[in-house]
Amino acid sequence: MSETHGFDPQTLHAVNASAAFNRSVGFEVAAAGKGEVTIRMSWRDDLTQYSGHLHAGLIAALLDTACGFAAATLVGPVTASHFSMNCLRPAIGTYFVAKGTTLRAGRRQVFARAELFAADQRDDLALVATGETVLVPTGEPRKADGS
């Protein structure tokens, strides 16, 4: 059995930059390593729902990505097999910070959780949502030519 290696921060930045969705909504990897990651996204009016809060789809995407990237720092490429989230309060802020943590990294499953914080104008952070993901290591990523 070959040993699996996690992504270093430089690789994780490249993975994030290669994801069209992450680029389009403005996900930035602020910190990564040793089973943890911090992702930042600035507020944008075009990412809100009808009441003016950040859309739950974006909340889920931030939490899921934070879990996946945290896991990837330990085991490399992963895909989610189960995801759940809890929205605790309306997500309104000048920017958002998702902090992902790997709880347990096994050969077949990785368990991770994330918290999403909204920053106010003084940069005080308020917890707005939490999420948990069960991930499956997928091995080496595909190359652009599909191999």
Automatic annotation (TrEMBL):
Q: Which Gene3D superfamilies does the record cross-reference, listed alphabetically?
A: Hotdog Thioesterase (3.10.129.10)
UniProt family annotation: Belongs to the thioesterase PaaI family.
Origin: domain of life:
Bacteria
Xref: NCBIfam families = unchar_dom_1
Taxonomic lineage of the native organism: Bacteria, Pseudomonadati, Pseudomonadota, Alphaproteobacteria, Hyphomicrobiales
For this UniProt record, give its keywords in alphabetical order, as a comma-separated list.
Hydrolase
* Segments forming domain Thioesterase: 52-122
Database matches in Pfam families: 4HBT (PF03061)
CDD domains associated with the record: PaaI_thioesterase
InterPro entries (alphabetical): ACOT13, HotDog_dom_sf, PAAI_dom, Thioestr_dom
The name this protein goes by in its record: Uncharacterized protein (TIGR00369 family)
